[in-house]
Amino acid sequence: MRASILYRISSVLILLFAIGHTLGYRKTDPVWGVDETLSILKRTTFHIQGFDRTYYGFYVGSGLFVTLMLLFTALIAWQLGGLSAAKLAELPWLTWGLAVCYGGVLLLSLRYFFMTPLIFSAAIFLCLTGAAVAARRRP
């Protein structure tokens, strides 16, 4: 399969991953029994470098940070999909760097998360790795 198609598929998968992450990372189920813990995290305020913050605020901010990074990598993958095969062959640090980055996301998903992010990160990693392999071939 051509690298351009794999990059475009990766971009759409990353975009869907970002949307799912953003809509879901703050949702909880009462069955989990974390309501009291979340309440404490929301109430516990501390002063750091001139700002009053909460641990829950750090959690929300970190989650939105992840969303921005996912959207940026979706944009990068889309742009890579528009490059010629010759130009892609000149960018191994970028093509392989993106694949390795999502390999790390896959490992983190295996260790810390659940099935949905695991499936998305695995599919994205495979597409990006396939695209990086295809991009190495000079036309």
Question: What is the strand and helix layout of this fold?
Answer:
Blueprint: H1 3-24, H2 35-43, E1 45-48, E2 51-54, H3 55-81, H4 85-89, H5 92-112, H6 115-136
Antiparallel strand pairs: 1-2
Walk me through the structure:
The chain has 139 residues and is mostly helical. It has one domain (3-30, 65-136). Helix content is 76%, strand content 6%. It contains six helices and two strands; from the N terminus they run H-H-E-E-H-H-H-H. The protein has helices at residues 3-24, 35-43, 55-81, 85-89, 92-112, 115-136, and strands spanning 45-48, 51-54. Strands 1-2 form a two-stranded antiparallel sheet. Helix 5 (92-112) packs antiparallel against helix 6. It is elongated and about 55 Å long. The two termini are 14 Å apart.
What are its keywords?
mainly alpha; 139 residues; two-stranded antiparallel sheet; 6 helices
Helix content: over 70%
> Which class best fits the helix and strand makeup?
mainly alpha
Largest sheet: 2 strands, antiparallel
Low-confidence stretches: none
N-C termini distance: 14 Å
Approximate strand percentage: 5-15%
Radius of gyration, in angstroms, nearest whole number: 18 Å
The secondary-structure element order is: HHEEHHHH
Quick one: overall form?
elongated
Helix count equals 6
- The domain count comes to 1
The whole-number mean of residue pLDDT values reads 95
Spatial sequence of strands, sheet with the most strands: 1-2
DSSP E strands, number:
2
